[in-house]
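Methods, example record. To illustrate the input and output format used throughout this study, we show the complete record for TetR/AcrR family transcriptional regulator. The sequence lines were provided to the predictor; the line carrying structure tokens was produced by it.
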Amino acid sequence: MGRPRKALLDRARIGATALELVDEKGDFTVPEVARRLGVQTASVYHHVDGRAGVVELLRERIVELLDASLLDARPWDAALEGWARSYRAAFAAHPRAISLLMTSPVRAPRVIEQYEWVAGLLLDAGFAADEVMPIITGLDNIVLGSALDMSAPEVMWVAEEGVEAPRLTAAQTATG
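The corresponding predicted structure is encoded as:
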């Protein structure tokens, strides 16, 4: 039996399918991705370097949702704010992917390219080289934490009956 004229599988389909699984279940396995695509697991491995390669495809899929052109805005803080808001919106659409992506090194070229722009923006704004990575890391933590918060229950702190928390309750009541 010969190969089909049109490829049944490509990196974009693998990434999209893995992201669907993560959105549904919070994780994926390469065999699950293969089953959903109707191919053998080995076929997926032909296109990616193991599970880590699929994780990078997930990262690329989400980063495609970001508006990188916002990094061209000036002044630098407006550019960074716009990009961070776009970043948060992209990850808020896929909150179950956050923990998976935050626990593996960023390697995807498209993603590295965006962080390169952010680093350049900060350096051009006058930040010292040794200040840039702490700023980027802090921004990541704030943006991704905020994206997770967007999918959290409306009330996060529930004092069960018999638990005394009058100040917490008053603060919650005051803020609606």
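Annotations derived from this record:
The domain at 65-152 is CATH 1.10.357.10 (Tetracycline Repressor; domain 2).
DSSP finds nine helices and no strands in the chain.
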